[in-house]
Design a protein that fits this description.
It is found in: Nucleus. The chain is α+β, with helices and mostly antiparallel strands. It is 21% helix and 25% strand. The protein is built from two helices and five strands; from the N terminus they run E-E-H-E-E-E-H. Strands 2-1-5-3-4 form a five-stranded mixed beta sheet, with helices on one face. Strand 3 and strand 4 form a beta hairpin. The N and C termini lie far apart (50 Å).
């Protein structure tokens, strides 16, 4: 059963984030075909990275530690994606940081404090 376990992935490039799932035994080349279905960029023009290491097409996701216990739906594993530029070189990894939620308004902070003291 372990061979068919799902891994959940968050693939990021610049401001784009792709969420997908695959099997632990999925080859990187197969994952690139999934990405092609979304981005319309040919697999040959994609490069995937796990922790700044280039992922090789013939390796499976489990080879990079992407297994069901580390890449869960609640906390998908993060991969970086780059594309080949017109000059044949691949672009550098460029990921726009995710935005943070705004700070809790003072009105709501007051309610939390009032709720905490009334509980005593």
């Amino acid at each position: 059963m372990a061979a068919g376990m799902c891994v959940y992935l968050m693939i990021r490039r610049k401001k784009t984030t792709i969420f997908t799932d695959a099997k632990e035994t999925t080859n990187v080349s197969e994952l690139k075909k999934i990405i092609q279905g979304i981005t319309k960029i040919a697999p040959d023009n994609q490069r995937l990275f796990k922790d700044d290491r280039i992922m090789e097409d013939n390796r499976c996701l489990a080879d990079y530690g992407l297994i069901s216990t580390t890449a869960r739906a609640q906390s998908p594993a993060s991969l970086s994606l780059t594309y080949r530029m017109e000059n044949g070189e691949f672009e550098a990894i460029d990921i726009t940081p995710l935005s943070s939620p705004p700070e809790l308004p003072d009105v709501m902070k007051g309610q939390e404090a009032a709720h905490d003291t009334s509980a005593n």
